[in-house]
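RECORD TYPE: inverse folding
INPUT: structure tokens
STRUCTURE:
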């Protein structure tokens, strides 16, 4: 890939294998040819913005599933932290632990002000190609509306 391993628009998304909140190993490539994947990187479990964003994804999760999409949240938090966060807020989708931020770094997710881990959402089509990248640290609910728009566009293709 000319872009190294970074997640780039209209390029194949770099594969990863991370542990979920239930302890299972999850690979992005497991979804290829099966589902559209909405991958959202967020800074930290149970912080105000991340809770709002995750609950917004939770609230539309059934709609996304009905449209053939899967939602995956990724942060550097531990598997245990993800498990507590998912249980507390009844999050029905996968939360993956990117300990040390290796996938975040490989995908080129920028940090905010050089301090906060970035908040970026990627929409990956069934062929594994990145079709949309939305980056906003502060407009947390727009991640869901952007994902909805892109999903509708992919459905129409």
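DESIGNED SEQUENCE:
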């Amino acid at each position: 890939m000319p872009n190294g391993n970074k997640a780039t628009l209209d390029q194949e998304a770099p594969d990863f294998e991370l542990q979920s909140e239930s302890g299972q190993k999850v690979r992005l490539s497991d979804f290829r040819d099966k589902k559209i994947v909405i991958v959202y990187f967020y800074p930290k479990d149970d912080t105000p913005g991340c809770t709002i964003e995750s609950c917004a994804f939770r609230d539309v999760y059934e709609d996304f599933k009905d449209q053939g999409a899967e939602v995956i949240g990724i942060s550097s938090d531990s598997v245990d932290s993800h498990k507590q966060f998912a249980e507390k807020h009844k999050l029905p989708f996968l939360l993956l632990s990117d300990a040390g931020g290796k996938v975040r770094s490989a995908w080129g997710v920028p940090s905010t002000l050089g301090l906060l881990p970035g908040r970026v959402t990627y929409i990956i089509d069934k062929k594994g190609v990145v079709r949309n990248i939305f980056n906003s640290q502060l407009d947390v609910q727009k991640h869901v509306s952007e994902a909805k728009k892109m999903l509708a566009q992919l459905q129409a293709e």
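NOTES: The first strand starts at residue 17 and ends at 20.
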